[in-house]
Amino acid sequence: MPSAIESAGTNWIALTKKTGKVEEREAEKIFETLPPAPIETFKGSWKGFSVNTGHPGPKKNDEVRWAGKNFWGVDDVEPMVQYNEAGERVWMEQIGKARFREVKYKGVLSTAMIYDKMPITDHFRLVNDDMVAGVMDTHLFPGEGNMYFYLTKL
C-alpha cells in the first residue's frame, strides 16, 4: 500500500496528464498534500510545464517559449529560461535572477524561489525525485487566482 506521500505524488502526476482545463481548487487541493521540497532537490536544469487552470500565466509563458528554470545555487537561480530560435535553452536576462529561501506557504515551510526583479515568489512541493510542483504567488494577475506548474529534472 502506497504511503500518503507516494499517493500525493501519484495524484499530482495524474493531474498533469489531464487534457483540457483543470479546476484551480483541484490543483490547490492536491498541491497542499505534497511534502516540502528541500532546497537540495533543485540543483541543475529543469523543464517547465503549466497546469491549465485557465490562469493567463501559461499563455504568457507560451508566448516567450518558456523552457523551465536553472538552479545553480541558493543565490543563483535563472527563474525564466526560454527556447531561442535555434531551440536552445537560454536564460531570459531581462527577467533577472532569483534566490531560494525557506518560506511558509499555507502553513508548510518549504522552498520558495523569490525573483530579484519581479514581484513573484514560486513555492515548491516535492512530487518525486524527478518532479516538483509549483505555485506562482504574485499580484501581477489580479483576480486570476494562482498559477500552478511543474518542473521535471533534465
TrEMBL record:
InterPro entries: DUF4334, GXWXG_dom. This is DUF4334 domain-containing protein. Residues 30-87 form the GXWXG domain. Residues 96-153 form the DUF4334 domain.
